[in-house]
Amino acid sequence: PGYWVHSLEHGYIVVLFDQNEADKRGWRPLFQLLMLAAPPSPMFGSRKLVILPYVGLSHPLCLIAWNRQLYLDQIDFPVILDFYVRYLDQGPELEA
């Protein structure tokens, strides 16, 4: 968690997922599409998205930005991309 928390400080968005659910539902290819669909940061020109498994989630997915969390029971591209765009580059350290 220390690595992705540090990314949050720099304005990244983190998507945590339950690995068992992702494997059962075949989500891994969708995560790859999500990485491609996320627009680059207007401030830094790179995608600032981290997607990784996490043990102990209360829902299959958790979207995290600095001081924000959104739990989801399924992959919903419009909701995920809206969260990404809305909270991108809002960490306390505005560095690339």
In a few lines, what is going on in this structure?
The chain has 96 residues and is an alpha+beta fold.
Q: Separation of termini?
A: 19 Å
Helix content percent band: 25-40%
Beta-strand residue percentage: 15-25%
Lateral arrangement of strands in the main beta sheet: 2-1-3-4
Element-by-element helix/strand order: HEHHEEEH
User: Over the alpha carbons, how many angstroms does the gyration radius reach?
Assistant: 13 Å
Question: Which regions contain 5 or more consecutive residues with pLDDT less than 50?
Answer: none
Q: Can you characterise this structure?
A:
The chain is α+β, with helices and mostly antiparallel strands. It is built from four helices and four strands. It has helices spanning about 1-10, 20-25, 30-35, 75-85, and strands spanning about 15, 50-55, 60-65, 70. The protein has a four-stranded mixed β-sheet with strand order 2-1-3-4, with helices on both faces. Strand 3 and strand 4 form a beta hairpin. The chain is globular and about 35 Å long. It starts with a helix and ends in a 9-residue tail after the last helix. The model has no long low-confidence stretch (mean pLDDT about 95).
